[in-house]
Design a protein that fits this description.
The protein has 121 residues and is mainly alpha-helical. The chain contains six helices and two strands, in the order αβαβαααα. α3 packs parallel to α6.
């Protein structure tokens, strides 16, 4: 991950104070890393455990992966479709076509993105 995303790893997140911010204390490290890394949003399908009102103090949004990917597709459709094609080319056992990859993504919870990306193919 460090080779591809130089700033993906966040250090020092344990110093962020998070008193009763989330329903599940086991999720505090996610918010702490987002705050320390100066992220704008947390991308998660687990929206229930990241109440928006609790994260406003940190100026953090919480976005479902389907909405995030749809935004990316809207902002840079050609780039996103190129990435889908490239991902499909790198699949093995079984080899997947872009439509197959999108079908699998839909099963993982990003149905809206998969449907819209399929229209762009």
């Amino acid at each position: 991950m460090r080779e591809t995303f130089e700033d993906a790893c966040v250090e020092g997140s344990e110093s962020v104070e998070l008193d009763h911010v989330l329903p599940d204390p086991d999720d505090h490290h996610v918010v702490a890393a987002a705050v320390r890394g100066r992220a704008d949003a947390i991308i998660t399908a687990n929206l229930r455990d990241y109440p928006i009102d609790n994260l406003k103090v940190f100026d953090l949004a919480v976005i479902h992966p389907d909405d995030f990917l749809l935004d990316q597709l809207d902002l840079a459709p050609r780039l996103v479709i190129d990435v889908i094609r490239e991902q499909a080319q790198h699949t093995r056992q079984p080899r997947l076509e872009p439509v197959d990859l999108l079908a699998r993504l839909a099963k993982c919870g990003v149905e809206g993105f998969a449907d819209e990306a399929r229209r762009h193919l």
